[in-house]
Amino acid sequence: MLRKTLGKSIGAVVLGLSLAEDVQAQDTGYLDLTHGETLQVLTKKVEKVSYQSFDEEIKKYDGAVIMLATNTCPSAEGEPINRNMEIVYLQLRDKFADAKVNNLPLKFTWFDTCGRSGADLLGITGLETHMYLDGQKIDVRVGGPLDITNAEANVKVMSAWINSNLLKRPYVSKKGDDKKILFYGQFDPTMEPYKP
Hints:
The structure is a single chain. By secondary structure, the protein is an alpha+beta fold. The protein has one domain: Glutaredoxin, CATH 3.40.30.10. It has helices at about 1-10, 10-15, 35-45, 55-60, 80-95, 150-165; strands at about 45-50, 65-70, 100, 105, 105-110, 130-135, 135-140, 170, 180, 190-195. Strands 1-5-2-6-7 form a five-stranded mixed beta sheet, covered by helices on one side. A hairpin with a 2-residue loop joins β6 (about 130-135) and β7. α5 crosses α6. The N and C termini lie far apart (about 40 Å). Residues about 1-25 have low confidence and may be disordered.
């Protein structure tokens, strides 16, 4: 129920973010994929992380990591929102494929919360996107778009999130102020003053 509520609001609209920078969602052909096909592409393009490999792949990585946690268990309610967020995530991965933090590639990983994955031991409670820097979690966004037509808005706001937190590119508000985008474990973003 909470995800349905979160999915209906779009953070970019709530904050009035224009995000006019070059963060256009790319037409990559992902939008036409089924959930099964999206998962196949996801497993080819990003590194799958498990509870056992979490410390090595994320906590000990000296750069930055964006980790998507979704659930591959069959669920009539969860499948569309998981698929939509996986498509947003693939678009972000393609957009930031050459990005570096601390001279290391910005790493995109995926955690499957289905079954006895250890997600509860890591504090993952559902569909979430985590941001890590130097092995430390710095922010979490929960949920994803209920409708795939909202993918572009999600790519834009999450691009501003990545840029302003990891790549030292602040989001410029409508008033001309430099801002940092944070989610604080929510779906909708918050703008904070940018401090380099």
